[in-house]
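Technical note accompanying the year-one report. For the benefit of new consortium partners, we illustrate the data format agreed upon in the data management plan: each record pairs a sequence with a structure-token string. No post-processing was applied to the example shown here.
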Amino acid sequence: MIPTGRRLELFFLAILPGLITVVLAIFFLSSKHMSGFGQFMPALPLMPVFYWGLTYSRDMPYWFMFLLGLMMDAVMGAPLGLSSLLYMLFLKLLHMQRRFIHKEGFIIKWSYFAALLAIIDALDGWALVFFKAGAINIQAAFLQWVFTICCYPILHKVFDMLSEYIQSRRWQILHGN
């Protein structure tokens, strides 16, 4: 029988990827109030979604993507449900290709992230033009995409270290060490 303290630690380790995603989403949303910085802020919430969805798909369930998207839409003033739909589509496309790229090297994973992000950004831009009947700033969207791609390797390394810690700690708790 696992003591209560260790059960709580296992629970915390299980929700840690989601907590990190929410914190990055809040940071992404709060940057919109800094003059000129919001247009080029990297898409921070999608980085942990990609990493954890690719590595441990159980850590990024679809219901979590739905709630995260609703939060993003409510704060940004986007059509309610658009981000939810796009985040769940992002996760579905990732899960469809997971078996092919899971064991590949970092460059392949990074390239796949860039391609998926481009698809989601294009769909987001198209939907916003459709719903708001206005033009989007292609240059700002492209710079945000580039900035996101450039920031991903740093967070990937941090997530790798965190993932190793989570796995080793889970093993220690479950095997009585």
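Partners are asked to follow this layout when depositing records. The radius of gyration is 17 Å.
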